[in-house]
């Protein structure tokens, strides 16, 4: 099983990611790209049809976690220690949201991760995230 | 003349339900709110579909963030609604989230979760809200969060 297949399997078995239809688009060393399809059930503001910030949080937390698991130092479980999300603008209704996450630094016990989310207009981010995640070493 | 308590309760519950009914995502998560006077406790009944770590099962970290954000938004809207509602006026629009920072203190167990949001600062334009979440024991938080919000015009 290659890395992309492993990541797809990992996300597919997470019940909440399955419920939202989150898919793994790409994965590499310490990085992951996940996508969330538009769904009227996830709307946070019916006046505009804009997706709730919470659904974007789920996507970003999942992408950051997947990036940590795709890092060679952390082949296994991880857990979020802390996650900050900045919401730059409302995502355009009807469009899917794509998140790129990457581990920019990994220490013995902690992975530092950044992520960016955008809709069809990739030049204008919908949200950014910065998080710290646990590194759980096998046999540690 | 003093209003009968049942009339007051009905009006307050109706206003709260009107706020909640606006937001499909509240229904999607299965969130409810317990109201005591103007105090709200957000409730997230456990469901299999909220799981983010299959073994041992734990609530998805993003779900916790989503639950807290919605608890904060509804608390803010409720705070700005309260006086208008008591006066029988229309409800304002929901605030918009600027950012949220969540501290994950321990795994979210496969149990119901509760959250209480406290408006730390309520300004004309910006609000700052702190949220505490717990499950079996109010003193043992499983996560906490701070968020900043943009208030709608005329809130």
UniProtKB/TrEMBL annotation, chain A:
Signal peptide: none
UniProt keyword annotations, A-Z: Hydrolase
Domain Thioesterase: start-end pairs: 49-122
Organism placement in taxonomy: Bacteria, Pseudomonadati, Pseudomonadota, Alphaproteobacteria, Rhodobacterales
UniProt keyword annotation of Hydrolase present: yes
The keyword Transmembrane appears for this protein: no
Alphabetized InterPro entries for the sequence: HotDog_dom_sf, PAAI_dom, Thioestr_dom
Gene3D superfamilies cross-referenced by the UniProt entry: Hotdog Thioesterase
GO cellular component: cytosol
CDD domains found in the cross-reference section: PaaI_thioesterase
Protein name per UniProt: Hotdog fold thioesterase
PANTHER family reported in the protein's UniProt record: 1,4-DIHYDROXY-2-NAPHTHOYL-COA THIOESTERASE 1, BLR7284 PROTEIN
Domain of life according to the entry: Bacteria
One GO MF term: 1,4-dihydroxy-2-naphthoyl-CoA thioesterase activity
From TrEMBL, chain B:
A Pfam match: 4HBT
SUPFAM superfamilies for this protein: Thioesterase/thiol ester dehydrase-isomerase
Single annotated GO MF: thiolester hydrolase activity
Listed InterPro entries: HotDog_dom_sf (IPR029069), Thioestr_dom (IPR006683)
Residue ranges of every copy of the Thioesterase domain listed in the record: 59-139
Top-level lineage group: Bacteria
The name this protein goes by in its record: PaaI family thioesterase
Gene source species: Falsirhodobacter algicola
């Amino acid at each position: 099983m290659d890395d992309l297949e492993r990541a797809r399997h990992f996300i597919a078995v997470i019940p909440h990611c399955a419920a939202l239809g989150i898919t793994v688009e790409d994965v590499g060393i310490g990085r992951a790209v996940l996508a969330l399809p538009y769904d009227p059930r996830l709307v946070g503001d019916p006046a505009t049809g804009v997706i709730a910030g919470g659904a974007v949080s789920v996507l970003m937390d999942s992408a950051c976690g997947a990036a940590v698991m795709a890092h060679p130092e952390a082949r296994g479980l991880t857990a979020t220690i802390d996650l900050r999300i900045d919401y730059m603008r409302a995502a355009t209704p009807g469009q899917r949201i794509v998140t790129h996450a990457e581990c920019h630094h990994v220490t013995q016990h902690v992975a530092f991760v950044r992520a960016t989310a955008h809709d069809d207009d990739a030049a204008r981010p919908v949200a950014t995230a910065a998080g710290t995640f646990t590194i759980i070493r096998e046999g540690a | 003349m003093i209003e009968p308590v049942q009339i007051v309760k009905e009006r307050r519950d109706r206003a709260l339900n009107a706020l909640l009914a606006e937001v499909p995502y509240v229904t999607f998560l299965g969130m409810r709110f317990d109201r005591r006077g103007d105090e709200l406790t957000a409730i997230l009944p456990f469901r299999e579909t909220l799981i983010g770590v299959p073994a041992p099962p734990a609530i998805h970290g993003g779900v916790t963030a989503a639950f807290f954000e919605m608890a904060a938004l509804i608390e803010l809207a409720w705070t700005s609604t309260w006086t208008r509602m008591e006066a029988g006026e229309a409800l304002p629009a929901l605030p918009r989230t600027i950012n949220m920072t969540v501290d994950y203190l321990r795994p979210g167990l496969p149990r119901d979760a509760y959250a209480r949001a406290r408006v730390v600062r309520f300004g004309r334009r910006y609000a700052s809200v702190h949220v505490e979440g717990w499950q079996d024991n109010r003193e043992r938080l499983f996560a906490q969060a701070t968020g900043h919000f943009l208030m709608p015009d005329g809130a």
